Amino acid sequence: MSVDKATVAKIANLARIAMDDAALERMVPELNNILAWVEQLGEVDVSGIEPMTAVIPNHLRLRDDVVDADPLTGGGKRDAVLANAPAAEHGFFGVPKVIE
Amino acid sequence: MTDLTQLGVKAIRDGVARGDFTAREVAEAFNAAVAGAAALNAFIVTTPDHALAAADAVDTRRAKGEGLGVMGGVPIGMKDLFATKGVQTTAASHILEGFRPEYESTVSQNLWNAGAGMLGKLNLDQFAMGSSNETSWFGNVNSPWRKAGSNAAMSPGGSSGGSSAAVASRIAPAATGTDTGGSIRQPAAFAGISGIKPTYGRCSRWGVVAFASSLDQAGPMARDVTDCAIMLEAMAGFDPKDATSLDMPVPKWEASLNADLRGKKIGIPREYRMDGTDAAILASWERGKEWLRDAGAEIVDISLPHTKYALPAYYIIAPAEASSNLARYDGVRYGLRDLPERAGLQDMYAATRAAGFGDEVKRRVLIGTYVLSAGFYDAYYTQAQKVRALVARDFEQAWAQCDAILAPTTPTASFPIGSLDKDPLTMYLNDVFAVPASLAGLPAMSVPAMLNADGLPLGLQIVGKPFDEQGVLDVALAIEQRAGFEAQPERWW
Fold first, then answer.
1. Looking at CA atoms only, how far is residue A43 from chain B in angstroms?
2. Which of these, B430, B414, B411, B408, lies nearest to B489 by C-alpha position?
3. Which of A69, B230, B300, B423 is deepest in the core (most CB within 10 A)?
4. Beta carbons of B103 and B92 less than 8 angstroms apart
5. What is the CATH number of the domain that holds B220?
């Protein structure tokens, strides 16, 4: 499978990366080289093989059902959460208007 | 008095404990070395005050007769992928420039708790994506090594290139690294130092900027095997804040080091003898086998039949995870915001990410988005995850025949900066020997073997069974004792 400029433009849009025509043109052969190379995986007989989901067998733990079980990742951290926001306003993240 | 910057982790820790010198003297010596090595561009920010404060705390504890910790008095470099409270953390990207975390990563906190201090945040490939440290927003890292008779700038490897350059140049006794598909082992090999990637889950990923979460694993980079064992002990440990953290006690790796390999079998995978591998690399591999035989090990031929498919599988899986992980950089919660005139929310996302990500990061996010998109998911991503299962099965079957595996770390020695950056695929091939162990989550280490004809270091790689970092360290120690690798780069910076 290979990609053309229109496909790269679609992927870039899905990935929310603005790309002008020149950038798209440049990316097409680069992506196609990589895709042509990974194509060789199609040769591998994977019948009866389950896709790997966990590299080291591990079961998911449940944390204790208490408020602020871990003070670092618990609640009540508004100012810390907003400290690096480019546009924090009134205790919220500021974004451009989304409703006309 | 001895030049303190010539000392490694163990020598510093033990010297401070004995009172041969103070932790403050050590920190001052390394702070000065860091300040005098700006030409390497190994650090993005330096934190001499952090190193001094940690040293003073250790000296105070010593005066009171208290324990100094596993890393007591050792100042280290911190790869700028670990969140450090109040200290800029960028992943070498523009999009995180100026980001000052409100929290400390578990691994860095573990190191501070063990008595280490921080010399600064080390440069790396942007978001750890690269094998040459040429994708950093903050400029290339220059290796302290140069080819004999040449002044051309050489690559320190990547992504942990600031770490390898700092340790090799003696401006830090040790540094943290992270390894997703070779990012500790390849730069360690290029720089003539040691580095170990432990079993997936040994070191917490909490507070480590995420690249590919099923592969990312932190580990130490240091001058020798013992120093790696010490530092890994300080870094590792169960962390409830990381869902994939191993809930197992941290072994006493340092105390258990044993280079006597009698009764051990070392596997030599025939598929690692690939076209295009440098003759000197193959020669170092042969030397490695002799050294291990000399240490009492039996050398056995093994087969890892899916080796050739590991790298292409990696270049589907890692970009797929990266495209998902990097979705968080949206110009809303932290980092860069690019808001063009009259732009809406979607335009702001796209403009921010266009301005904030470098070319290699964009390339991988696009590949990842493509292989996960509707209609292609099974053909690419599911197939790659099945191949990954086969790569892991190859290793499981090999453990019936051997206790550890010996292979080269890289197919070539370091290369001049700018020589491979035109074609992403050639760059990717640097990690052809490193990626299989990453896909299988296995502990793997690079240890210096020798210099090639150009005077550049070559490394040997040891891959071990899950949770058997001890076995890996022991084999590496046996090589280290016989290789007698004492070479240091000649100072030009």
1. 9
2. B414
3. B230
4. no
5. 3.90.1300.10
* CATH number of the domain residue A32 falls in: 1.10.20
- Please give the tally of structural domains in chain B: 1
pLDDT digits (tens, 9 = 90+) for A23-58: 999 999 999 999 999 999 999 999 999 999 888 887
pTM of this structure: 0.97
Is A40 within 8 Å of B312 when comparing Cβ atoms? Answer: yes
Nearest neighbour of B343 by CB, restricted to A19, A27, A96: A96
Q: What is the ipTM of this complex?
A: 0.95
Q: Compute the count of residue pairs across chains A and B with CB atoms less than 8 Å apart.
A: 171
Residues of A in contact with B366 (CB under 8 A): 8, 11-12, 15, 17, 27, 31
- Closest residue, chain A, to B388 (C-alpha): A52
- Which domain covers residue A28, as residue numbers? 5-43
Model pLDDT for residues B413-440, shown as the tens digit of each residue: 999 999 987 888 888 998 999 999 999 9
Query: Residue written as tokens 């052969």?
Result: A29
The verdict on a CB contact (< 8 Å) between B373 and A14 is yes
- pLDDT attached to residue B290: 98
Which residues neighbour A59 within 8 Å (Cβ) at sequence distance 6 or greater? none
In chain A, whose CA is at the least distance from the CA of B345? A96
Give tens-digit pLDDT for B6-56: 999 999 999 999 999 999 999 999 999 999 999 999 999 999 999 999 999
Q: Do A84 and B309 touch (CB under 8 A)?
A: no
